[in-house]
Amino acid sequence: xxxxxxxxxxxxxxxxxxxxxxxxxxxxxxxxxxxxxxxxxxxxxxxxxxxxxxxxxxxxxxx
Length: 63
Description:
Order of helices and strands: EEHH
Number of strands: 2
Helix content: 25-40%
Number of helices: 2
Distance between the termini: 35 Å
Shape: rod-shaped
Radius of gyration: 18 Å
């Protein structure tokens, strides 16, 4: 399953509360909203790639 943007929206207050008047009643609602604006620009690390690189590095050391 695809992962959505995890950076919190600038207008998100708490569960079920949005400054833009939307119902943020379920998880990740803000990330799917058309009015989504991230609070901060954060570079998301590709964890899958990081783990695979670590495994490949160990395999290369064995050879």
